[in-house]
Amino acid sequence: MFSTYQRLGVHVRDSNRAVVRATRRKFRKAVRIDPAYREGRKAIYRDMLHYHARAAKLFTSNRF
């Protein structure tokens, strides 16, 4: 799943909203609008935000 985060094309300084938007763009339209996939989408958003937070933490801890 981390490789999916890397393919989103977001920078570690981007906001959480930018991560969710980039993730949403990766979904097919049918998946974006179908209520049956809602829990799965939420899980993927949580995973992407988790990886984004880890990447941001690594970025800030390695600076000077």
- Whole-number count of domains: 1
Q: What's the assembly state of these chains?
A: single chain
Radius of gyration: 13 Å
**Fraction in helix:** over 70%
How would you describe the shape?
elongated
Give the uncertain stretches in residue-range form: none
Largest sheet: none
Average per-residue pLDDT, rounded, comes to 93
Strand content: under 5%
Element string (H = helix, E = strand)? HHHH
Please provide a written account of the structure.
The protein is an all-alpha fold and 64 residues long. The protein has one domain. 70% of the residues lie in helices and 0% in strands. The chain is elongated and about 45 Å long. The termini are far apart.
In a nutshell, what does this entry contain?
The protein is mostly helical and 64 residues long.
Keywords:
64 residues; mainly alpha; 4 helices; 0% strand; elongated
List the helices and strands and how they pair.
Blueprint: H1 2-6, H2 16-26, H3 29-33, H4 38-61
